[in-house]
Design brief:
94 strands; about 40% strand; single chain; disordered N terminus; about 1350 residues; 5-stranded mixed sheet; mainly beta; membrane
C-alpha cells in the first residue's frame, strides 16, 4: 500500500484534534497477568469533559498486547484496556498507537503508548482506580481523603507526591489506605481541578497512580415557586390541577416532605406530587375555606421550603362518572410481554397516569391505561404491588387512585445479554482487506450452563461514498462466525473491492437455542470502509455538520485554528469559501483560521462555510463565540507532539506541523536534542524526515521543537517507527526432531513449537494410534499422554498453528519427528502427582507424607531426594518419607512448589513437580481496629439505613468473623452478624433520646456468647426541625367566677417547640374563635376573652355576670414567628356562681397531690354521675378552719355535657347522697364549715401531737418570763418605796434641826444623773440626789455638803 494513498494519515488539521486527557503514555502489565485481564494505567486515560460527540477508540500495533474494552466512549469516560496477547512483548516492551476518531467531526487524535512487562511482585499493593476527590474549601481548613490500595502497604515504605500542589498535601499510610491531608493556609489560590501523582516506594518496588482533586460544588437548592396554590373539592379530594412541587439547583437527589397539621395530605418523596389520603374528612366546616401546608425539599446539604395554599370548595354534583372501576386490580403476565395489562379509568377527558407508590422504576402507564414493564428480563417470577394515580390532563377537579397487584412470570433461565459498552460501536476497515479479516468481535453472555448461542446478521443501513442510502446487499461481503466463550466474530467473507458502499450498519442478533423463551439480544456495528480519494465528481457533496457554537478566547493570534471542514469521501477538486472573509480564511483542505485579531470583535460572530464542486454545492452555518480573557503568553498550541510513521516512510515524510500562539507570535523554528539531526523543520513549522529509516536500529526518536527567537518556548516531539505487519504466521522452526525413551512418565515434555504470537495448535498424524499418544498444549508444548513402552520407533506428527484476529484467519504448519528409544530396566517412575499438606502449627521434623514410586528391581537402588536447597521439607533417601524442615506460617506463605527426583541405577532419573499446601490454623485472635467509635446521624434517617460498619480482623484464612450485639442494646438498631453493619430499625427522635451506646462483640462462631474482642459504638442523634410548637394538652378546661374582675388572668397556657434548634424562639399566641354555649344553645361572641400575644395567659375583657351557668369555647393557636409552624388547642371556660361549687376532701398529703390524682378523682366522679366534672381550685384548709398539712380540699363543679349546663350544688349532693364508695362531697362555704354531719374525731396524729407539745413548751416559757418580770417590778417598787421614806425622814430632819452642828466634809463632784433616778456612788455609798428648784438646770455639776444625820428610829427617840 502506498503511503500517499492514505489521505487521512498526513492531514495536519485532522490530527490536531484533542479528544483525550492523557495521564501517562506508559502502561505496566504484571508478569502474572493473564489474557483477558483488565489492565489499569498509571493514571487513567479518559475522554475530555464537555465533548459534544462520541469518540471511536482503537489500538494499532504489530502485534498489540492490549485491546480496548469499549470501542465507543463519551465525555469524561475512562478507557479500559484488556490484555489480549502475552506474546506481543519484545524484550518486555510493546509499542502501540492509540487512535481516537470523532464520530461526527471525523477528527483524529493519535497517542503512542509504551506497554512494559512489570517485574513487580503481585503481592506489592497496587492502586484501585479512585474517584475524583472533592475538597470543600481552598485549603482554608484541613481536610482528609483516603485512597485504597489492593493490599496492606509494607512497613518502611515511602509515599511521594508529584504535581503542582504537592507541597500543600501531606501523605501517610496505614494498612491498605493512603491518607492524604491538606495543609491549611490563610491566603492561597488553588486552580481546580488539579492532579497529583502518588507513588508508593519500598526498596526496588513501587506502585503509582494519578489522583484528581476538584472543588466541591456548593448546593444552591431553591423552590421554583414561593407559594403554590390549587383548589380541592371537599369530601372527594379532587384537585383543580395536579399540584407538583419542584426544586432546582441541587447537587444530589432531592427528597420532598410535607409539614401538615391536618394529617390528611402526603407528598411523593421523589416526584413532589401532592395527594390527599383521607378526603372523607376534608370539609369547610372542619378546616375553613383554606388550608396552609409547607412543602420541604432537601438534597442532603441544603433544605428549603415553600407554602402550599389549598382552597376548599364545595362538592359539585357531576353527571359523568370518573375514576377506576376497581379499588384493586389483579394482573398476571409474562415478563416478555411489553403490555402486561390495562387499568383505563373512566373519563371524558384526556388522562395522565402516575405510579405513586411501589416500583415506579419497573412499571409505566401510558395515556390509554396500558401497564408497561420496563425492567430487565427476569429468570424467576416476581410479585409487586403498586399504587396508580390518574389525573385529568387539563381542567376539572378530578383525581383518583387504585392499587394494582402484578404477578410477572419469569422465563425460567438466565437471559442472554451483552455488555453495555458493546451494544453499539463503529469499526473501520480498508477496502483492500482480504477475506477472513475479523472486523469486530462481540462478547455475548449467558449464565446458563447448557446455553447454546446462535448468531444472525441483519442489515440496518447502507450508505455509498456520496452519503446516499442505497439498496445494495452487504451481507454477501460479511459473515458471522461463532467463537469461543460465546463470542460473535463479524468477518469479511468476500473482497470489498467490488462493493459500492462506504459504510454499513449491521444488527448482530444472539439467541439461545436451548431456551427459546429467552428474548433475543442485539448489538449494532457501523462498518466504515476506507477507500482511495475520489477523483471524479461525486453525485452529491457530503459536508460533515459543523457545531452550532465554537468557542475561542479573544487572545488568539492571527492564523489560529478554528475548525476543520471535512467532505467525505474526500474530493480533491472541492473548493471551500467562508463568510465573513475579513475575519476568517479557509484553506483548500477546509482548515478554518483567523485572518485578523478578534479582540475587538463582538462576542458572537456568525459564519458560513460553502463547499462546491462542479454544479454541486453544500452550505453549513455556525457561530463563533469569543470568550473574553487576559492575553496569554506565547506557547505552542500542543503540549507534546507525537506521531507514528512507517519504518519504510520515504525522506521528507511529514511528521507534524507545529504552531505557536500568543501576542508575540514569530517564526522561524529550530530543532534541538540528540535525535533532532534525523529531522528538519521549515519556517512554517512543518517537521519532515531527513533520512531513510528502513535499516535504522532505533524505533523511537525524542527531541524538542523551539522558537528560534526564544528557545525557552518549546515543546517535546516523539516519533515512533512502525514495522510492517506480515499477514503470515512466523514460527521459530517449521520442522522439529525429538528423541525420548519409551519409559518416560505420562505428561513428560517431548518438544515445543516456538512463536512470538499467541496461536491455537492442533496435532494430527496419519496413524490414529500415534495421534492418541501425544497432545499439544496452548503454548505449543508437546507431551505424551500415554506410556510409550510398546511404541519404540520413529513417528511423524503434523502441527497446525492458526490465529484469528484483525489480520484475518491465518495458519501455518510444522512437522515434528519423534524417535521413541528403548530404555533399560532401571527406570524410576513416580506413581502419581501428589499434593502434600501440612498444618502451620506442626513442629519441625513431623512426617507429612511419602514419595510414591513404581516398584522396580531392588538391584536398581532407588534413591529419593528433593532438588531445592531451600526446600521447606526433607526427603528420606531410602524410604521417601517427607518431613517438615521448618515451621510454617500460613499468613506469610500459603504454598510451596517442590521438585522431587528419583534416581535408579547410575544415570536413570525422574523428576516431578509437586506442591506443598499449608493448612491454616486458628492461631490469631479476632481484634477490632479501634475500641470506641462515635458517629452522628440525623433523627430523620430512614429505617434500614446503615449508620456504621464494624470491622474486626482475623489473620487466619478460614477465621470467619461474626458480630453480636451485647445486651442491653437499644431496639432502635440492629447488627448484621457477618457484615458488621449497624442499621436503623425504628424511627429516631432527638427529643426522646439524644445518644445511644451500643456494645459490639466479635467471635468466630455465630451462636457464641464468648466474645474474643469488644468495641463501643456511640451514636449521637442530631436534631432536625421536624416539630412545630405544641400545647401540653389538646383540650383545656377551667372554671371562673361570675364576679371575676375584668382584666383578671383566667388561665396561663404555655406551648413549647421540642426541637433543640427552636429553643429560645418567640412563640405568638392568638384566639382564633370564641363561642358561648348555654343549655344546648350556641352563639359566637367577640371580645369577651383575649390572650397575651407572647406570654400566653388568657384574661377577661368583659364582665361575666350575664354568662353564669354557661361555657365559653375558645380555639387557641400558637405560631413560631421564625419558621411559621403552628399548633392548636381548645379551651373551655365555665362561668359559675359560688353556690355551684362543691368541696371534696382528698385523702392525700399536699406534697402527694398531682394533676394525675386530680384527674383520676374527676374521672371517677364523672363516671359515677354521668356528668362532667371540672376542677376549680385546691385548698389546704380543713372543714374546721384549722390549718393542717394533711387536709386537701378540691373545689369542683359539674355540668351536663349535652346541654353544657352547670348543675347546682344541691342537685349534685342529692345525686351522690345515695351512692356508696364516693368521697365525701360538701357544699362550698366561705368559712369552709362542712354542711354535712361532723365526722367522729380521728386519732391524734403525730403532727397534731407535735404542735401541742410545742404549744405547751412555749406556754411554760411565757409563764417563767412573766414570773421573772413580776419579781423585777416588785424589787423596783420596794427600792422606790425606801427612797420615798428616806426623803420624808430627811425632810423632817431639816424641819427639826439637830442640837449640834454636823461636821463638814469635802465636796464631791458627780455628773448630773437622770431626773428622779437613783445612781450608784463609788465606795458603795448610797446618796439621794434631790434637785433643788433654785439651782440652774444648765449647770453641769453641783456642790453639796455631805452630812450624815442620825434620825431616831421612832418618835420617842427624836
Amino acid at each position: 500500500m502506498q503511503i500517499s494513498h492514505i489521505f487521512i494519515l498526513f492531514l495536519p488539521a485532522l490530527l490536531n484534534a484533542q479528544f483525550l486527557e492523557i495521564g501517562s503514555e506508559h502502561i505496566e502489565v504484571s508478569n502474572n497477568a493473564e489474557e483477558g485481564d483488565l489492565i489499569l494505567t498509571v493514571s487513567p486515560i479518559r475522554a475530555l469533559q464537555n465533548l459534544d460527540e462520541s469518540v471511536h477508540i482503537q489500538i494499532e500495533g504489530n502485534p498489540s498486547a492490549l485491546a480496548v474494552n469499549s470501542s465507543i466512549i463519551d465525555s469524561d469516560q475512562t478507557i479500559q484496556f484488556l490484555l489480549v496477547n502475552k506474546n506481543a512483548f519484545v524484550n518486555g516492551v510493546n509499542q502501540v498507537k492509540l487512535q481516537a476518531l470523532g464520530v461526527i467531526s471525523g477528527k483524529v487524535q493519535e497517542v503512542d503508548l509504551t506497554i512494559h512487562k512489570s517485574g513487580v511482585s503481585s503481592k506489592f499493593p497496587t492502586f484501585l482506580e479512585p474517584p475524583r476527590l472533592l475538597l470543600k474549601n481552598e485549603f482554608e481548613t484541613g481536610e482528609t481523603a483516603i485512597v485504597k490500595v489492593s493490599s496492606d502497604i509494607p512497613v518502611e515504605s515511602q509515599i511521594n507526591l508529584y504535581g503542582k500542589y504537592s507541597d500543600r498535601i501531606r501523605a501517610s499510610y496505614e494498612g491498605d489506605s493512603v491518607i492524604l491531608e491538606t495543609i491549611p493556609c490563610e491566603v492561597c489560590v488553588i486552580d481546580f481541578p488539579f492532579d497529583l501523582l502518588v507513588v508508593i516506594r519500598n526498596q526496588d518496588q513501587h506502585s503509582e497512580h494519578l489522583v484528581s482533586f476538584d472543588e466541591e460544588k456548593k448546593s444552591s437548592l431553591r423552590m421554583t415557586q414561593k407559594v403554590y396554590r390549587t383548589s380541592i373539592e371537599e369530601h372527594s379530594g379532587e384537585q383543580e390541577n395536579l399540584l407538583k412541587v419542584t426544586a432546582i439547583g441541587n447537587n444530589s437527589a432531592i427528597v420532598y416532605s410535607l409539614r401538615d397539621s391536618t394529617g390528611l395530605f402526603s407528598i411523593h418523596p421523589k416526584e413532589g406530587l401532592l395527594s390527599i389520603m383521607h378526603p372523607e374528612f376534608l370539609s369547610i366546616s372542619s378546616f375553613g375555606e383554606t388550608i396552609e401546608l409547607v412543602a420541604i425539599a432537601t438534597d442532603g446539604e441544603i433544605t428549603t421550603n415553600s407554602k402550599i395554599i389549598l382552597k376548599i370548595v364545595s362538592k359539585i354534583d357531576k353527571d359523568v362518572l370518573f375514576g377506576f372501576e376497581n379499588e384493586i386490580y389483579e394482573i398476571s403476565s409474562s415478563v416478555n410481554s411489553k403490555i402486561i395489562g390495562n387499568i383505563k379509568a373512566r373519563s371524558t377527558n384526556k388522562l395522565d397516569y402516575h405510579v405513586t407508590e411501589g416500583r415506579e422504576d419497573l412499571y409505566k402507564i401510558d395515556s390509554d391505561g396500558n401497564i408497561l414493564y420496563i425492567g430487565d428480563v427476569l429468570r424467576d417470577d416476581r410479585n409487586d404491588l403498586i399504587c396508580v394515580t390518574v389525573q385529568e390532563a387539563s381542567g376539572g377537579l378530578k383525581m383518583s387512585s387504585t392499587y394494582v397487584r402484578i404477578e410477572l412470570k419469569g422465563i425460567g433461565s438466565f437471559p442472554i445479554n451483552v455488555n453495555k459498552a458493546e451494544l453499539d460501536g463503529i469499526e473501520s476497515i480498508s477496502a483492500e482487506d482480504e477475506e477472513g479479516v475479523v472486523v469486530s468481535s462481540i462478547q455475548f453472555n449467558d449464565d446458563d450452563k447448557d446455553a447454546d448461542l446462535s448468531f444472525g446478521l441483519k442489515t440496518v443501513q447502507v450508505v455509498d461514498q456520496f452519503g446516499n442510502n442505497i439498496d445494495e446487499d452487504p451481507s454477501k461481503y460479511f459473515a458471522i462466525k461463532s467463537g469461543d466463550d460465546k463470542q460473535a466474530h463479524l468477518i469479511v467473507s468476500k473482497s470489498l473491492s467490488e462493493s459500492n458502499f462506504t459504510s454499513v450498519k449491521f444488527e448482530i442478533v444472539g439467541r439461545d437455542r436451548t431456551h427459546p423463551m429467552e428474548p433475543s439480544v442485539s448489538a449494532y456495528r457501523t462498518i466504515v470502509i476506507e477507500r482511495h480519494m475520489v477523483t471524479e465528481l461525486p453525485k452529491s457533496l457530503n459536508l460533515l455538520s459543523i457545531p452550532k457554537n465554537i468557542s475561542v478566547p479573544n487572545t488568539v493570534p492571527i492564523g489560529s485554528f478554528i475548525y476543520q471542514a471535512i467532505v467525505l469521501p474526500e474530493y480533491k477538486d472541492a473548493e471551500f469559501r467562508i463568510e465573513p472573509e475579513h475575519i476568517f480564511q479557509i484553506s483548500k483542505n477546509g482548515t478554518i483560521t483567523t485572518r485578523k485579531l478578534i479582540n475587538d470583535e463582538p462576542t458572537n460572530i456568525p459564519f458560513r462555510v460553502t463547499v462546491s464542486g462542479g454544479d454541486l454545492e453544500k452550505v453549513e452555518e455556525s457561530n463563533l463565540k469569543v470568550e473574553r480573557g487576559e492575553l496569554a503568553p506565547e506557547h505552542f498550541t500542543e503540549q507534546e507532539y507525537s506521531m507514528n510513521i512507517p519504518r519504510v516512510a520515504p525522506i521528507d515524510t511529514v511528521v507534524a506541523i507545529v504552531t505557536t500562539s500568543g501576542p508575540n507570535k514569530e517564526g522561524p523554528f529550530i530543532l534541538r536534542g540528540s535525535h533532532s539531526h534525523f529531522f528538519n523543520i521549515d519556517d512554517e513549522g512543518t517537521i519532515k524526515t531527513k533520512e531513510d529509516f528502513s535499516s535504522s536500529v532505533l524505533s523511537d526518536f525524542d527531541f524538542l521543537v523551539a522558537a528560534a527567537k526564544d528557545p525557552s518556548i518549546n515543546a517535546p516531539v516523539h516519533v515512533h517507527l512502525e514495522n510492517i505487519r506480515t499477514s503470515k504466521i512466523l514460527l521459530a522452526e517449521n520442522q522439529l526432531f525429538a528423541s525420548v525413551y519409551d519409559n518416560i512418565p505420562k505428561n513428560s515434555f517431548v518438544a515445543k513449537i516456538e512463536s512470538e504470537e499467541k496461536l491455537e495448535y492442533k496435532l494430527t498424524s496419519e496413524n490414529p494410534k500415534i495421534e492418541k499418544l501425544f497432545n499439544i498444549d496452548s503454548d505449543g508444548t508437546i507431551r505424551n499422554i500415554e506410556y510409550l513402552t510398546d511404541f519404540v520407533g520413529m513417528y511423524t506428527l503434523l502441527v497446525q498453528a492458526s490465529s484469528i484476529d484483525r489480520a484475518g484467519v491465518r495458519s501455518t504448519n510444522a512437522t515434528v519427528v519423534i524417535d521413541v528409544l528403548k530404555s533399560n530396566e532401571c527406570v524410576p517412575i513416580f506413581k502419581e502427582s501428589t499434593i502434600y499438606y501440612a498444618r502451620e502449627t506442626l513442629p519441625i521434623d513431623t512426617l507429612i507424607g511419602k514419595v510414591e514410586a513404581v516398584d522396580i528391581d531392588k538391584s536398581c537402588e532407588l534413591e529419593y531426594e528433593v532438588i531445592e536447597e531451600d526446600s521447606p521439607i526433607t526427603v528420606d533417601p531410602v524410604n521417601g518419607e517427607i518431613r517438615t524442615k521448618k515451621e510454617f506460617d500460613y499468613e506469610k506463605t500459603k504454598t510451596y512448589m517442590i521438585t522431587l527426583k528419583l534416581t535408579a541405577g547410575r544415570n536413570n532419573q525422574a523428576v516431578q513437580k509437586t506442591e506443598l499446601r499449608i493448612i491454616d490454623e486458628n492461631d490469631h485472635k479476632v481484634q477490632f481496629d479501634q475500641k470506641i467509635y462515635t458517629v452522628e446521624v440525623s433523627e430523620d434517617i430512614a429505617p434500614s439505613s446503615t449508620v456504621f460498619t464494624a470491622k474486626a480482623t482475623d489473620k487466619d484464612n478460614d477465621g470467619k468473623i461474626f458480630y453480636h450485639l451485647i445486651d442491653p442494646s437499644p431496639p432502635q438498631f440492629s447488627l448484621h452478624s457477618t457484615k458488621g453493619e449497624v442499621r436503623v430499625e425504628q424511627n429516631l427522635d432527638y427529643e426522646n433520646e439524644k445518644e445511644y451506646i451500643i456494645e459490639i462483640g466479635a467471635s468466630n462462631s455465630e451462636n457464641s456468647h464468648e466474645y474474643l474482642d469488644k468495641m463501643t459504638l456511640v451514636i449521637k442523634v442530631n436534631d432536625v426541625n421536624d416539630n412545630g410548637p405544641t400545647f401540653s394538652r389538646d383540650h383545656f378546661n377551667t372554671v371562673t367566677d361570675k364576679d371575676t374582675v375584668v382584666g383578671s388572668k383566667i388561665l396561663n397556657i404555655q406551648a413549647h417547640d421540642p426541637d433543640s434548634s427552636d429553643k429560645g424562639k418567640k412563640l405568638e399566641y392568638a384566639i382564633t374563635s370564641q363561642s358561648f354555649d348555654y343549655r344546648g344553645m350556641s352563639r359566637n361572641v367577640d371580645d369577651v376573652f383575649d390572650i397575651h400575644q407572647f406570654e400566653g395567659y388568657v384574661h377577661s375583657m368583659k364582665s361575666l355576670r350575664d354568662y353564669v351557668g354557661g361555657v365559653f369555647n375558645l380555639a387557641l393557636s400558637v405560631r413560631d414567628v421564625v419558621d411559621g409552624t403552628t399548633g392548636k388547642t381548645h379551651l373551655k371556660i365555665y362561668v359559675n356562681d359560688k353556690s355551684d361549687l362543691l368541696n371534696i376532701e382528698l385523702p392525700y398529703k399536699p406534697n402527694e397531690v398531682t394533676p394525675q390524682i386530680v384527674d383520676s378523682f374527676i374521672s371517677q366522679l364523672s363516671n359515677s354521675t354521668n356528668l362532667v366534672g371540672v376542677p376549680h381550685r385546691i385548698t389546704y384548709k380543713s372543714a374546721h378552719g384549722i390549718t393542717s398539712t394533711n387536709a386537701v380540699d378540691l373545689q369542683i363543679i359539674f355540668f351536663n355535657e349535652t346541654s353544657t349546663e352547670i348543675i347546682p350544688a344541691e342537685r349534685i349532693l342529692a345525686i351522690t347522697e345515695k351512692m356508696r364508695g364516693l368521697p365525701e362531697i360538701r357544699k362550698y362555704q366561705q368559712n369552709a364549715i362542712s354542711l354535712s354531719k361532723p365526722k367522729p374525731a380521728p386519732m391524734i396524729q403525730p403532727e397534731l401531737l407535735l404542735i401541742a407539745v410545742v404549744f405547751l413548751v412555749l406556754l411554760a416559757i411565757t409563764i417563767v418570763l412573766c414570773g421573772l418580770l413580776m419579781c423585777y417590778h416588785r424589787n423596783k417598787f420596794q427600792r422606790q418605796k425606801k427612797i420615798v421614806e428616806n426623803d420624808r425622814a430627811i425632810k423632817n430632819a431639816i424641819n427639826f434641826p439637830a442640837t449640834r452642828s454636823p461636821a463638814l466634809i469635802s465636796f464631791k463632784h458627780y455628773p448630773s444623773p437622770a431626773p428622779d433616778m437613783p445612781r450608784p456612788i463609788p465606795n458603795g455609798e448610797q446618796h439621794a440626789y434631790i434637785k433643788s428648784p433654785k439651782l440652774n438646770e444648765n449647770v453641769a455639776s453641783y456642790a453639796i455638803q455631805q452630812a450624815t444625820i442620825t434620825v431616831a428610829e421612832n418618835e420617842e427617840k427624836i
